[in-house]
């Protein structure tokens, strides 16, 4: 199956599964190409090719499944059983051997990692406030590539009360949000 066919199949599966469970807001299904696929795929322009991705709270697979379709090695972390079942179905139906589904909590996944993995980065979209994400993953010292909304400046200020980190903001190509890249994160003493 070619990349375009995979995205077409993914879109059809999202529409079908969304009739039975809440994967994405129903109002976004009509514009799935831009609202979900292109929004997630913009990370492909900045992600290094030689990394493994851990996608936090993957939900319907954004950006994790999109990045797996585009060739990255991705682990989608999802604690809700129905959503993990959807992700597992997408792994099979889209023939994505580079996609792993972790059905569990983010903190359990992080706890099981080796100390300071050098080839791992975290991604997330519509998962949690920045400070909460850093609470989960700062201990790993991994880089983060997050799709965030227009309130990111406020989230950065809040996070900086607890953490020191370097960051770079890029305006989103698909909306009024931002992509934030974070590295060198550590807890303030």
What's the layout of helices and strands?
Layout: H1 3-17, H2 32-41, E1 52-56, H3 64-69, E2 73-78, H4 81-93, E3 99-103, H5 106-111, E4 120-125, H6 130-137, E5 143-148, H7 152-159, E6 163-171, E7 178-187
Parallel strand pairs: 1-2, 1-4, 2-3, 4-5
Antiparallel strand pairs: 5-7, 6-7
How would you characterize the overall build of this protein?
The chain is an alpha/beta fold. Helices cover 35% and strands 25% of the residues. It is built from seven helices and seven strands. The protein has helices at residues 3-17, 32-41, 64-69, 81-93, 106-111, 130-137, 152-159, and strands at residues 52-56, 73-78, 99-103, 120-125, 143-148, 163-171, 178-187. It has a seven-stranded mixed β-sheet with strand order 3-2-1-4-5-7-6. The longest helix is centred in the N-terminal third of the chain and has 15 residues, at 3-17. It is globular.
Range of helix content: 25-40%
Relative strand content: 15-25%
Distance between the termini: 51 Å
Average pLDDT metric: 94
Order of strands side by side in the largest beta sheet? 3-2-1-4-5-7-6
Structural class given helices, strands, pairing?
A: alpha/beta
DSSP strand tally: 7
Number of DSSP helical runs: 7
* Radius of gyration of CA atoms, rounded to a whole number: 16 Å
Helix-strand sequence: HHEHEHEHEHEHEE
Give the overall form: globular
Largest sheet: 7 strands, mixed
Uncertain regions spanning at least 5 consecutive residues: none
List keywords for this structure.
25% strand; 189 residues; single chain; alpha/beta
Summarize it.
The chain is of the alpha/beta class and 189 residues long. The protein is 35% helix and 25% strand.
């Amino acid at each position: 199956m070619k990349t375009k066919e995979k995205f077409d199949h993914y879109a059809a599966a999202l529409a079908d599964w969304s009739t039975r469970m809440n994967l994405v807001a129903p109002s976004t299904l009509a514009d799935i190409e831009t609202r979900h696929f292109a929004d997630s795929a913009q990370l492909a322009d900045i992600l290094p090719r030689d990394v493994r991705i851990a996608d936090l709270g993957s939900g319907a697979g954004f950006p994790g499944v999109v990045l797996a379709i585009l060739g990255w090695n991705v682990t989608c972390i999802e604690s809700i059983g129905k959503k993990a079942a959807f992700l597992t179905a997408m792994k099979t139906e889209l023939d994505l051997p580079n996609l792993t589904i972790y059905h569990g909590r983010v903190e359990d996944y992080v706890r099981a990692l080796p100390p300071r993995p050098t080839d791992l980065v975290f991604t997330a979209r519509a998962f949690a406030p920045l400070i909460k994400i850093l609470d989960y993953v700062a201990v790993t010292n991994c880089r983060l590539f997050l799709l965030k909304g227009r309130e990111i400046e406020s989230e950065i200020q809040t996070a900086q009360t607890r953490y020191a980190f370097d960051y770079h903001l890029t305006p989103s190509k698909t909306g009024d949000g931002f992509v934030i890249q974070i590295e060198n994160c550590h807890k303030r003493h």
